Amino acid sequence: MTEAPTLLWLRQDLRVADNPALHAAAGGPVLPVFVLDESAAGRWATGGAGRWWLHHSLAALGAALAERGAPLLLLRGDTHEVIPALAARIGAAAVHAGRQHAPWTRARDEAVAEALRRDGRSLHLHDGALLIEPERLRNGQGRPYAIYTPFARAVMALGDPPPPVPAPRRLHGVQPPGAGLALDELGLLPRPDWAAAFPDYWTPGEAAAQARLHEFLEDAAGEYDTGRDIPGEDGTSRLSPHLHWGELSARQVWHGVMQHGGQQGGRGTFLREILWREFSHHLLWHRPELPEQPLRSDYARFPYQPDHALLRAWQQGRTGYPIVDAGMRQLWQHGWMHNRVRMVAASLLVKQLLQPWWDGAAWFWDTLVDADLANNSANWQWVAGCGTDATPYFRIFNPVLQGRKFDADGAYVRTFVPELARLPDRWLHEPWSAPAEVLRGAGVVLGRTYPAPVVEPEAGRARALAALRGMKAAE
DNA sequence: TGAAATGTTGGGGCG
DNA sequence: ACGCCCCAACATTTC
Fold it and tell me: Quick check: A208 and A216 in contact, CB under 8 A?
């Protein structure tokens, strides 16, 4: 009797190294499959930039699997029908997959597991996307963590995570029952092709993820403490999209740090950023309303003033605040924004502009190549002040001071807001204050070549604080 | 992982 | 020499 084949259902673990589901399935005949389900995620279906990334990541994974003898089958349809039907067609005893943590993936996996169970098959979900599974950590009162610092301390106290499992050298591929789809037939690439410039900045796929990790650890990681705050320099890891799609695992990152000098200085700060990712997933698992509802319920009454024209100005990078506009334009061109600038841009939107945080989150969701439901939702709630461990609402970033402090030489603003490039550093972050002859000399006409601020700096701050007082008074 | 307002201190200029 | 004032620098409080 021949061994029953296994179905390897790949979702957000698009790698062959340190892939516990692949490792478990590799002992016998295996059929790797990816299913594009356009409806299961509802409003959290992968956004435009994410789909671009996914297309190229699937290409890379398909090549790596084919090279090992088990080509990747691509399908489209309702997952809870496609997976059980495919398992039945090939007579698979078990389906192996990497565990995911978003609410809609939990519901979908339960439905698939139930359908498989009715057929006498089983779904095995493997840990590996996170350093620590969300239900394994509890605080002193036996509850999930709501505050980052004690959470991070608890994770660090656990010591090293398990070592990564190796990539299988050879796989015993199973002939799929049908042809499957060609990658282009999944329709993941945007039309019209607004992502044309993305390949200048990004290379999706496991090999590129590994290369980037090692380049970062060799080079910028040591000075990460300060380098990460300068958006005009290449001081961050830029690993976020690789981590989102599981081209790289968090424990590969962890062990990489340990092998490149350990967690001293900048590398320790970098690891704590990886722990923010863990914390966001911990929150999303235990508070599945995170993407939709403020964790602090009093914020349900916050008096946002939705204004489509203001939202558009922010999205298109014409708020009149140079550091914010530079960030929003970087987002559009690269599908990514430097984290320091994300905080400043998000703060302006929800505070000075009084726009709902979920409108900002929706825009990031569609335009970021690293769009991740846990990180995106938790970070927006952090900025808006409505998260459990958020920055207080009255902490309002001043885009002029942030620009002066972190883009002192103007390299970042001049790259993405070229119409201000000839302004001297002194006025670059507040063109509205520049003397008329300075503006003339730089070829800047406010309101014509570059917008005047959509809201006066002092008025924006005052309005935000007044809104907070209004909410408190309504209690 | 904020910024502004307010308070405190101490050195130096000056009559 | 002394007291007074100014103000920069730093600390604390407030939003």
Answer: no
Q: Of A128, A10, A115, nearest to A72 (Cα)?
A: A10
State whether A306 and A455 are in the same domain: yes
A356 shares a domain with A269 = no
Chain C footprint bases within 7 A of protein beta carbons: 15
Q: Are residues A331 and A276 in the same domain?
A: no
The answer to whether the C-beta of A391 is closer than 7 A to strand B is yes
Residue ranges making up the domain that contains A236: 130-162+206-286
The closest nt to A465, taking CA to C1', is C15
* CA–CA distance, A88 with A116 (Å, rounded to integer): 9
Q: Distance in angstroms, CA of A394 to C1' of C13? A: 14
Q: Taking a C-beta distance cutoff of 8 angstroms, is the pair A315, A309 a contact?
A: no
Strand B closer than 7 Å to the CB of A124?
no
Answer yes or no: do A98 and A62 share one domain: yes
Report the distance separating Cα A155 and Cα A146, nearest Å. 14
A367 and A461 co-located in one domain: yes
In a domain, A264, yes or no: yes
CB contact at 8 A, A284 and A133 = no
Both A237 and A312 in one domain: the answer is: no
Is nucleic acid strand C under 7 Å from A395's C-beta? yes
* pLDDT tens track, chain A, 475 positions: 468 999 999 999 999 999 999 999 999 999 999 999 999 999 999 999 999 999 999 999 999 999 999 999 999 999 999 999 999 999 999 999 999 999 999 999 999 999 999 999 999 999 999 999 999 999 999 999 999 999 999 999 999 999 999 999 999 999 999 999 999 999 999 999 999 999 999 999 999 999 999 999 999 999 999 999 999 999 999 999 999 999 999 999 999 999 999 998 899 999 999 999 999 999 999 999 999 999 999 999 999 999 999 999 999 999 999 999 999 999 999 999 999 999 999 999 999 999 999 999 999 999 999 999 999 999 999 999 999 999 899 999 999 999 999 999 999 999 999 999 999 999 999 999 999 999 999 999 999 999 999 999 999 999 999 999 988 887 6
